Amino acid sequence: MTQSNVPESPHSGEEVSTSSVTLDFIAKAAGAGASHTPLTNDEGHIETEPPVRGDAAFRFFERSFLAFDRFLGRALPKELNPFLNTGAIAVVSFFIAAVTGVILLLWYSPSVVHAYSSVAAMGDSPWTAGLMRSLHRYSSDLCMFFALVHAARLFFERRFVGSRWLAWVTGMLMLGLLWFIGWSGYWLVWDERAQHIAVGTARALDVLPI
Asked: Residue 184 pLDDT more than 70?
């Protein structure tokens, strides 16, 4: 049997221990100097977000949302708390508004002359056209309200920095599209308010260099 003649370094254990101590010191120093708020991503790993300006104001509004959640939590469980499920409620409301809007085309007349009369005639059928119009109206309002609350909550929780910037930007674009759909939906009734909105929009577009 031949034995290895390579001598073992007497300082190898010290090098290992020194390296581990150095790594521990760097990790502790990085943790002590970081002022970022730790968040958990979808995989369950903790990640830090870069700091933002006005952090004190963000924390104030975030604590306000949490206090409101605790207030509602005394009477409602988390599953039934609407302000803990703003995104889901907005999506479901949008789906209801879209479906009922398509169904309303069975009674609606897309004409400047007959648009208002066709909408007014929907009230004569409260269990068909009237019901669809009520569902469409209130689901649209509900969708816009909870979409704004959802956006405000994510904003004050500072979920627009770091790896979440793309979701925030696309969400803002979708919110703008949702507002435009609701804005143009007022035109379809073609009552006095809708005509004022149409005239005001036309004047605003005339200002743009298009």
From this structure: yes
